[in-house]
Amino acid sequence: MKISLLILTIFLCFTYVNAQESEAKVNNSNHNSSTNHKESPSYNNAEASKSLVGEMEKANNINVFVLESKRKKSPFEFLEVKRFVKEKEIGETDTRDEPKVENPLQKSAEEKFHWKPALIQSGVFLGIQHGYRVLAQKGTREQLKGPFFRDWAQSVKNLRGWRDGNRFFINYIGHPLQGGLTGRIFVNNSDRAKKQEFGKSKKYWESRFQAMAWSAAWSAQFELGLASEANIGNVGLQPRGRYSSMAYVDLVVTPVIGTGVLIGEDAIDKYVLKNWLERKGKNKRLIKILRVALTPTTSIGNLLRGKVPWRRDSRLL
Question: Could you tell me the pTM of the whole model?
Answer without folding.
Answer: 0.66
